[in-house]
Amino acid sequence: MTIDQEPSAQAPLTELGAAQASTTLLERLAEKLGGKATVGAVYGEPITRDGVTVVPVARVSFGFGGGAGHESGAARSADGGGGGGGVDARPLGYIEIRNGTAVYKPIRDPWVDIALPLAAMVVGIVGSKSARALARRRNRSH
Questions:
Q1: Rounded Cα distance, 91 and 58, in Å
Q2: Helical (H) or strand (E) element with 58
Q3: Statement: the pTM of the whole predicted model exceeds 0.70
């Protein structure tokens, strides 16, 4: 084996090492983030008092990504890697268990309760005024 053949023979091993490092990084991120992405992270554990049990309900998701790089050549040599991730946990509601009956109770955003009726009212007012103005124009043109 000559010196010219040696780098090309080692290149697959180096690329394999970068790919394996990337895979290991992604697996570690998934393990760590997945372990933290729980309803308990949002609310805590179910609570029982006076015969009533409240079980929290939440939407929990996580995502992650990573990468690795390798470049080699006669004049250049490079290596790289990186990764990151995040967790999103949002409370949705709770299940109330009382006397053997379970009832889901959503947690609503108060702005939705205000904004939707207000938007419907504005659309109704603007729509009726526009319809009246259009009717007046038609009557004037005839």
A1: 4
A2: strand 52-72
A3: no
